[in-house]
Amino acid sequence: MNTQAVISCDNIEKQYKNFALKVDHLEFPKGFATALIGENGAGKTTLLEIIAGLRLEHKGEVTYFDQYNEEDRENNPIVKNKIGYTGTSNYFLPAWNLNQTKAVQKLLFENFDGDKYDAILRDLALTSGDAFEGDKKVSNLSDGNRTKLMLAGVLARDTELLLMDEPASPLDPLMRDKLCNLIHDYIASSEGEKSVIFSTHNIADMENVTDYAIFVENGRVVEQGFVEELKEKYIYVKGDAEDEAAVAPHLFDMSKGKYGFEGLVLAENIDKLAGYDLIRETPTLMQLSVGIMRANTKLGAGIR
Amino acid sequence: MKISQSSGIPIYQQIADYFRTEILEGKYQQGEYLPSIRGLAKDLKISVITTIKAYEQLETEGLVTAVQGKGYYVNAQDAEMLQEQHRRKVEDALMEAIKYARIAGMSDGEVTATLETLLEFEEG
Fold first, then answer.
1. What is A33-49 written as a DSSP string?
2. CB A167 within 8 A of CB A182
3. How many C-beta atoms lie closer than 10 Å to residue A280's C-beta?
4. Which of the residue ranges A226-230, A254-258, A300-304 would you say has the lowest mean pLDDT?
5. What is the bridge-based pairing of β-strands A161-165 and A83-86?
6. Three-class SS state of A214
7. What is residue A100's three-state secondary structure?
8. What is the pLDDT of residues A30-46, one digit of tens each?
9. Which of A217, B20, B55, B76 could form a disulfide with A296 if both were Cys (CB 3.0 to 4.6 A apart)?
């Protein structure tokens, strides 16, 4: 499918003591929600932080909205105002109360809408049963509520790109459902201009908002694509234990049980399995993710 | 429209089926736009790419036309042309069946007998 890129990364390299992130070329499609999927320590957060401008020391270039570079992101308020970021750690001072978080964001961002902020906070609080009072301190909020506070902050601005690091993790099931609705609303608020990039381990919860998936393992992008295309590229098969040895070489990833096996096979290889009695299914994003992650894990084949 | 996550029928297929019926039943006028891709995704709580895939399928079938930046509008539905398209699909599918019949070494008589059995089965 032909799409424009909201973000392109070229020759990105970030070296740590025991880990290196290395991305030759990566494009995030404009007008869609993209999920970054991978193990802990695979490099998702590092990549998001480089894009968000929280890690300035790195090699390579990031291009924003097809025309701005990282210097523009730092110095040009137009670029800064278009991007919203939520991280896993709270970026409001613990001693601030909710009214102060509003005042600070009003000061920082031209397009911050204080009334909208209040409205979103009320809306989010409604579902959790918590009362969001203006004098409530940030330090008294639970992890989930701090995440809501950051979400409300970015959603109260008129942005074109949301970068969210693990937004679903601290949230309860009801709130995850709400988060999906918020992402849907955001994407649907313009026909193709607004994009979301988020990292997540809560793949099943987020499947219905994920358009594009990028799999990161051990600092490298190991697979990517529109979810509907990945679901055609791979087929999920299940078979009996007696066929296991014969089928195994053709599978992309396999997990074995007492009564049989299941795993991913590349659609291009499915003809090689024609003679075996297998169940074929379209993989869920979760099955795709587990298979792709397991096939590329730095933990090696030991966990299979 | 009701979308089932666990029916075994892909979601994009369910959406395409729904709009195909709507269009063929004349519920959409010629030139009328289908719901916006992202609006539909939001309302059905599914991903944008799934809606796009559904609409692209309708486009391949000649039911709608995509306009860059505007969405998908419904084509004039020429009943004869539609029937012709379906006939061609039947021919393609039968050609595929014949191909496999040759591989399996089935005689022509066996192939027609199979088809007849299947037709009876379908009617029964």
1. EEEEE--TTSSHHHHHH
2. no
3. 13
4. A300-304
5. parallel
6. strand
7. helix
8. 999 999 999 998 999 99
9. A217
Q: Which DSSP letter does residue B75 get?
A: P
CA angle B1, B51, A290 (to 5 degrees): 110
Predicted pLDDT at A126: 46
In this structure, what are the phi and psi dihedrals at residue A87, rounded to the nearest 5 degrees? -110, -175
Closest chain B C-alpha to A174 CA, distance in angstroms: 15
pLDDT-derived band of residue A303, with 50, 70 and 90 as boundaries? very low
Neighbours of B34 (CB within 10 A): 22
Alpha helices in A156-226, H assignment, sequence order? 173-188, 203-206
The pTM for the full model equals 0.84
**Domain definitions of chain A by residue range:** 5-218, 231-303
Domain parsing of chain B, residue ranges:
11-74, 79-123
User: Is B49 exposed, middle or buried, given 0-12, 13-18 or 19+ CB atoms closer than 10 A?
Assistant: buried
CATH number of A5-218: 3.40.50.300
- Residue A268: DSSP 8-state: G
Contact (CB, 8 A) for A66 and A230: no
Indicate the CATH number for domain B11-74: 1.10.10.10
Task: Report how far residue B69's alpha carbon sits from residue A125's, in angstroms, rounded to the nearest whole number.
Answer: 37
Q: Which residues of B touch A211 (CB under 8 A)?
A: 47-49
HSE of B122 in the Cβ direction (CA atoms, 13 Å)?
6
| Closest by Cβ to B12, choosing from A207, A211, A228 | A228
Q: Does the beta carbon of A221 lie under 8 angstroms from any beta carbon of chain B?
A: no
Q: Distance between CA atoms of B88 and A114, rounded to whole angstroms?
A: 60
Task: Evaluate whether B70 touches B112 at the Cβ level (below 8 Å).
Answer: no
